[in-house]
Amino acid sequence: MYAPDATGIRSEVSDDREAGSLPSFSIAWTTGEKCVRVVLSGDLDMPASLRLERAVDRALQHEGVRQLVFDLRHVEFMDSAGLGALLSIRERSQSLDVEMSLANVSPIVGRVLDVTGTRATFR
Q1: Is 91 exposed, middle or buried (0-12, 13-18, 19+ CB in 10 A)?
Q2: Is the pLDDT of residue 106 over 80?
Q3: Alpha-carbon distance 80 to 47, whole Å?
Q4: Taking Cα atoms as reference points, which of 117, 122, 12 lies closest to residue 72?
Q5: Where along the chain do its domains lie?
Q6: For residue range 10-48, what is the model confidence (pLDDT) as tens digits?
Q7: Longest Cα pair distance anywhere in the chain, in angstroms?
Q8: Cα distance between residue 112 and residue 118, in whole Å
Q9: How many CA atoms does the CB half-sphere of 111 hold within 13 Å?
């Protein structure tokens, strides 16, 4: 789903919802003049990582984007595939001269970043 609002900020929401089930992962983003803010919720695992990378590729196609911010406060689980996706997105962002950062890192994600020594990579 994609909808511009009166301020010109565009947003999109996507989830893994199957008939009658709660989503295990959702992606929502808002796109301002130069910044894309991506809000993730749920489990950032292999299936979610594949969806995330496709969604971010679409978001980065917006003209003039210079900053990509991931809000991770609602991520309840992240495995190596999720970490790999964030690292891959960071690399693609750098190649496009887009600054990527993590915001509101949940304790679960923070622990993965600390154990793997990658927290400083996203600063």
Answers
A1: exposed
A2: yes
A3: 12
A4: 122
A5: 28-122
A6: 455 444 444 444 458 999 988 888 999 999 999 999 999
A7: 43
A8: 8
A9: 8
According to CATH, what is the number of the domain 28-122? Answer: 3.30.750.24
Give the pLDDT score at 43: 96
**In the prediction, which pLDDT does 33 show?**
83
Q: Within its chain, how far is the Cα of 63 from the centroid?
A: 18
Beta strand 25-31 pairing with 35-44: antiparallel
**Which residues, other chains included, contact 86 with Cβ-Cβ below 8 Å and sequence gap of 6+?**
70, 102, 122
Q: What is the pLDDT of residue 23?
A: 55
Among 8-12, 28-32, 78-82, 111-115, the range scoring the smallest mean pLDDT is 8-12
Concatenate the DSSP letters of all residues of the chain into one string: -EEE-TTS-EEEEEE---TT---SEEEEEEE-SSEEEEEEEEEESHHHHHHHHHHHHHHHTSTT--EEEEEEEEEEEE-HHHHHHHHHHHHHHHHTT-EEEEES--HHHHHHHHHHT-GGGG-
